[in-house]
Amino acid sequence: MSKDNKYRSDKVKQEHTIIEDILPLLKELAELDIIKSIIPGRINRRGGSGIPPHLKLKYPTPSGIKILAKNSSSIQEVFVVTDETDKAMKLIKEKKFVK
After folding, report:
1. How far is it, in rounded angstroms, from Cα 16 to Cα 33?
2. DSSP 8-state secondary structure symbol assigned to residue 15
3. Which of 18, 13, 31 is nearest to 95 (CA)?
4. What is the rounded average pLDDT of the residues 21-29?
5. Nearest to 39 by CA among 74, 76, 70, 91
6. Minimal CA–CA distance to 45: which of 23, 71, 25?
7. SS3 state of residue 91
8. What pTM did the predictor assign?
9. Dihedral of the CA atoms 42, 47, 49, 51 (nearest 10)?
């Protein structure tokens, strides 16, 4: 692995913390050919509700799609980079990667 990608595992950037049990979901999402990169963002705490880890599709961004990753105690912004936003959103829904 080159120095330029020291925080990258496949398409998932891991420079910062990723909330518990979400990384496997992001790696599964990264297997889609239409996805160029996945960049986890800031983490916020939320009231514990006992929900299993999952992803929630939010909206298109200039570089792709914003997704929220949630578990019972945290919520994290995740940015998916793609050149074909509409097609990627449709595929993500069809494959049931998101709730």
Report:
1. 24
2. S
3. 31
4. 93
5. 76
6. 71
7. helix
8. 0.85
9. 0
- H-run or E-run covering 65: strand 64-70
Q: Please tell me the total number of residues recorded for the chain in this structure.
A: 99
Tens of pLDDT along 35-89? 999 999 999 998 777 889 999 999 999 999 999 999 999 999 999 999 999 999 9
- Look at the block and give the residue holding tokens 């913390």: 17
Q: Can you name the residues that pair with 80 across neighbouring β-strands?
A: 38, 65
What element of type H or E holds 56?
strand 54-61
Rounded to whole angstroms, the Cα distance separating 69 from 76 reads 5
Check whether 29 has a pLDDT greater than 70. Answer: yes
